[in-house]
Amino acid sequence: MALTVVDHPLAGALLSALRDRSTPPPLFRLLAKRLALVCCLEATRTLPTAPVAVETPLTTTGGVRLATPVVAVPILRAGLGMLEAVTELLPEVTVGYVGLERDHATFEPSFYYSKLPPLAGRTVLLLDPMLATGGSAAAACTALAKAGAESITLLSVVAAPEGIRHLEETHPELNIVTAAVDEGLDDHAYIVPGLGDFGDRLFGTS
Ligand code: PRP
Ligand code: URA
């Protein structure tokens, strides 16, 4: 598994503002989108390119285009907070959705929705800002692999060591890009120090 922790001052500043409990939902959404942009840039750093010829106003020169189509799959709900950043950076991206909800007592995820475009031969960006126990991301990766995905990168905002270990064991081929690896999980499987419930803070629910 390849784990990349985004090392950029903007990512650090944006994440600190997201962690702040006094950040209200409208600002939280804006900051989440900006941080997702930074993470998406990092996650797409190794995308394969193909050469193209470009006519500039002066001459012909060599350029590149992305060689593989990209599919973005946000895990509902919190992953929606990262989607707009990805569709802005990659306007040709196709989008699928996976709905997963973590049980409050067992922390086990259950599926309530899935709609996926063709995945074979494409690079899949799985969007879920919180990697806690890793159960949700692992279940999503299993579903994506069943649907034909061969190359998956998880874009996360905060990851717990427990979740990283779980994904290492269950999906060793996965790439993870995250803005931070935190200390661990509390008794309710929330990430500490974390930023609380991302979905609730994004959508103003609780
Ligand atoms: C949160 C979060 C992740 C999941 C992470 O979703 O957005 O999907 O928990 O936890 P895990 O790594 O232990 O599986 P939640 O189930 O709260 O749903 P929501 O996004 O709709 O709030
Ligand atoms: N889901 C969240 O939104 N936050 C956590 O800390 C853990 C799971």
- Beta strand %: 25-35%
Shape type: globular
CATH-derived architecture: 3-Layer(aba) Sandwich
Strand and helix order? EHHEEEHEEEEEHEHEEEH
The small-molecule ligands in this entry are:
1-O-pyrophosphono-5-O-phosphono-alpha-D-ribofuranose, uracil
The end-to-end span amounts to 34 Å
CATH class identity:
Alpha Beta
Largest sheet: 9 strands, mixed
Q: What is the tally of helical segments?
A: 6
Structural class: alpha/beta
The whole-number mean of residue pLDDT values reads 97
CATH topology: Rossmann fold
Poorly predicted regions: none
Gyration radius from CA atoms, angstroms: 17 Å
Count the E strands.
13
Question: What is the helix fraction of residues, given as a range?
Answer: 25-40%
The structural domain count equals 1
Structure description:
With 206 residues, the protein is α/β, with parallel strands linked by helices. The protein has a single domain, classed as Rossmann fold. Helix content is 33%, strand content 33%. Strands 1, 4, 5, 6, 7, 8, 9, 10 and 11 form a 9-stranded mixed sheet that branches. A two-stranded antiparallel sheet has the order 2-3. It has a two-stranded antiparallel sheet with strand order 12-13. The radius of gyration is 17 Å and the shape is globular. The chain binds 1-O-pyrophosphono-5-O-phosphono-alpha-D-ribofuranose (PRP) and uracil. 1-O-pyrophosphono-5-O-phosphono-alpha-D-ribofuranose (PRP) binds at residues 75-78, 100-102, 107, 109, 128, 130-137, 163, 189, 198-199.
